[in-house]
Amino acid sequence: MDDSILKAIGNTPLVAIKRLNPNPHVLILAKIEYVNPGGSIKDRPALAMIEDGEKSGALTRDKIVIEATSGNTGIGLAMVCAIKGYRLLLAMSEAVSVERRKILAARGAEIMLTPGHLGTDGAIEEVYRIVRENPDQYFMTDQYNNPANWKSHYSGTAEEIIRQTDGKISAFVAAIGTTGTLMGVGRRLREYDPAIKIIGVEPYLGHKIQGLKNLKEAYRPGIFDKRIIDEIINIEDEEAFEMTRRLGREEGLFVGMSSGAAMVIAAKKAAEMTDGTLVVIFPDSGERYLSTSLFAEKKKADVYLFNTMTRSKEPLEPIVAGKVSIYSCGPTADSRLNIEACRRFVFSDVLCRYLTFRGYAVRHIMNITDFDDKT
To answer: Of the N and C termini of the chain, which has fewer Cβ atoms inside 10 Å?
Structure first.
């Protein structure tokens, strides 16, 4: 008998992918991380970062644990902090799924939402601001820069993979988020056998895959070391979403968006290989995305806009459901209004009124610049 649910973290199964495997000569094994007690791979670094803080003395009973998260790390921290008796404050984008917020609240975490259009980076900046202003009040786990993140995968996830495959592994695929999994597993596998290919999966700019990062548009994690990775491959959102749905239908694996993204690339790499074993990480379950468009039935868009760049009518698809932000380039304070500017202002106003009428929460921002000889 274990004295804590924390003992159940790790030792997750490797499951063979069969129907979605394009190459019968290659064995694709998925590491199913949603069987962790907190429901995702982030249970591993969550426990490691808290225990590292305790050992170093940086985390004491009078401090509040604080972190910026897209959901899974926060859920892992909420579980660990509930068991160990720490207060937890989490900053997260309002764009994350409702399920994650509810799970966090159920585990006693305090949640601070940041603007959806800023993504996880907005949450990171808010946490840094709070800690900067109150350094003695908080313990920041800082998953993007904390070596305990990748070390939890170096000594845990990677060792499990080596043991479960009897050391017979040709390639490893994982999606890019905090990069902790790639850095930790990649380091250990490289030490074990330098011939093993380490492949990162990165979404394109402006993506909507929750939990993943494009390193060109987002805060680059301090723990990231590009020398660990052999190749980074980009993935389209819809490719990832469709593969996620197919994993449920054809493999019986009800997984999240990042698992679908990783599986797309795993299948492509397996098709290129002559033989061998490829291991891919499935970080969490699909239950955390039921409120998103991932598993929603396709329905006809109720609002269309004319895109002047593509010269085509396109459906309005807000980043956050039910909310729209509109930016208008306003006048300069020293110039007279002209007909072009007035036409733009009137159109912006009509658009705001129409979207409000259709039930959207509208935020309209207009800049007014004061030009002078010092500008």
So the answer is: N
Give the closest residue to 266 by CA, choosing from 332, 334, 173, 189: 173
C-alpha distances (whole Å) from 131 to each of 4, 148, 236, 253, 303 are 30, 19, 36, 40, 42
Q: Domains, the chain, ranges and CATH?
A: 5-37+152-289 (3.40.50.1100), 43-140 (3.40.50.1100), 304-369 (no CATH)
* Catalytic status, residue 258: yes
Asked if 30 and 53 touch (Cβ cutoff 8 Å), the reply is: no
pLDDT attached to residue 193: 98
Q: Which helix (H) or strand (E) element contains residue 187?
A: helix 180-192
How much is the pLDDT for 101? 86
- pLDDT for 225 equals 97
Q: Say which of 31, 42, 213, 269 is annotated catalytic.
A: 42
Catalytic one of 258, 259, 285, 348? 258
Torsion angle in degrees (nearest 10) through CA of 46, 215, 181, 45: -10
The pTM of the full predicted model, rounded to 2 decimals, is 0.78
